[in-house]
Amino acid sequence: MKKILIPVTNHASLGETDQVNGTYAPELTHALHVILDAGLDYDIASIKGGKAPLYGTDIEGDAVNAAILNNDEFQNRINNTLPVSQINIDDYAAVFYPGGFGLLSDLATNEDFAKLSATLYENGGILAAVCHGPGALLPITLSTGEKLLATKSVTGFTREEEIDYGTLAHVPFLLEESLARSAARYSKVQPWGVFVIEDERLITGQNPTSTVGVATALVKSLGLTPVKVVVELEDKTMA
User: Fold this and answer.
1) What angle do CA 33, 35, 41 make, to 5 degrees?
2) Separation between Cα atoms, residue 179 and residue 216, nearest integer Å
3) Under a CB-based contact definition with an 8 Å cutoff, are residues 127 and 152 in contact?
4) β-strands 126-130, 82-83 pairing
5) What's the rounded Cα separation, in Å, for the pair 31 and 130?
6) Contact 106/9 with Cβ under 8 angstroms?
7) pLDDT tens-place string over residues 112-153
8) Checking DSSP bridges between strand 202-205 and strand 185-186, what pairing results, if any?
9) For residue 184, what are the β-bridge partners?
10) What is the spatial distance between Cα 113 and Cα 97, in angstroms, rounded to a whole number?
11) What's the CA gap between 3 and 17, in Å, rounded?
């Protein structure tokens, strides 16, 4: 079985503010819990390579998050992410983009990862993203010249959730608006509700509580049965 490629951001702050940011840890760790339980392997990559910034690493009562963050193998991979220039996309069956505000400042406009994801998708692979992760889908252009999202139904972090979290004035751009303008259809449910959309081989989730649903759909799309259902993120912290 081929591996899952997980691109993460190199951007360590919320937009141009001094607020610590990066990739929202629970969206990465809870997805990895599902992926690893299914017997899959993974690589973590970033545009520049090297140590990738995380936040949400100290959430009380999140045993899954704590266990994976304390795993030596995970720490080695997150502290030594593969640079995009070294990625052979043929080694992977799927790409999963976890959320976090950081990617709005780099992956959301990065052509290198966009080209790799386009190649994987056109070769029959699966693309998945959660929360702000769908922002990384925006630059993906297929070999036909058409944007990936032009014919797709997607979800992603909402304007209401930005308001709840107090980030509306600080994000580089409003993800909901960008997805609504780019995708064939953008849909959402009430803030913080679990919501996952599968459109052919594209899987998107609205917010942190949708992480396990996205990862489970990804595993199933690869023809595997998730070993166990992980408890959804219940706190309303976000990425």
Assistant:
1) 115
2) 23
3) no
4) unpaired
5) 10
6) yes
7) 999 999 999 999 999 999 999 999 999 999 999 999 999 999
8) unpaired
9) none
10) 11
11) 35
